Amino acid sequence: MTEPDTLAEPPPLGRFGLWTFALDRQPWSRAKEAAAEIEQMGWDAIWVPEATNRNALVNSTLLLGATDQLVVATGIAPIHNRDAVASANGQRTLDEAFPGRFLFGLGVSHQWLVEDVRGGHYTKPLATMRAYLEAMDAAPFSAYAPSTRGRRVIAALGPKMLELAGSHADGAHPYLTTPEHTASARSILGAKPILAPDQKLVIETDPAEARRVARMHLAGYLAQPNYQNSFLRQGFTRDDIDNGGSNRFIDAIVAWGTLEQVCARVRAHLDAGASHVAVQLLPSNMGDLPLAEYRLLADALLR
């Protein structure tokens, strides 16, 4: 079945989403309860990752079914995890079942995940992403079609991928970036596309403890070539990103301090041109589900 000639536009995304690994670290019985609680707090969206954790489309289906109005966004689903037809038709299925509530975030992932974990071939990220998005657009679909237009964003850090986000997707989901990067990204994207950066934060006023938590969560990212290149483009040096990250680097990438201070950093992205900020609270212990802190942030940002 082809899609209708005229699709309804999805509602606006809203300004603040919650980006979290924490639900993947809970049994589903607890994760679905937490998702409902997060929705009741007033968050506009919940962002969930995909690497070697829960399958992005299955997880999104479960979360959408456990909530009533919350947007579920993937941050991000690697394009090497499924072919373009599977992605396109998975999105169409969710768009039909949950109109306007699914945001498909897609990315090229990392070479070690693609080749060492999945046995794939990682090459030419920009060209690969372009071809994938075009193949999604051309994918046949013989099931009942959605009546609301689906939305997709791509993981975009550099200028060429940001240009692709504006021409072949609904916008960009930059990760590990500063408000200054957000301003630059908006100038590349133009006024209309979604610009939804993540902002990591620690509600902690002790500098040593805040930076300890930040370094614990950033350690894996600092070893990835694409993030290293992004950090260098953002004005950091090799000395900043080596050996766990300098204080200057940590403080620029991860907001820490009082509730008011971390919320100010989140709002700085909006001031710089973001249409939505994916707020990622970094817990002091990796396995924690910090619902109380999620509520504090919601009360401060959303009311």
From TrEMBL:
Signal peptide: none annotated. Residues 26-275 form the Luciferase-like domain. The lineage of its organism: unclassified sequences, metagenomes, ecological metagenomes. It comes from freshwater metagenome. This is Unannotated protein. Pfam families: Bac_luciferase (PF00296). GO terms for molecular function: oxidoreductase activity, acting on paired donors, with incorporation or reduction of molecular oxygen.
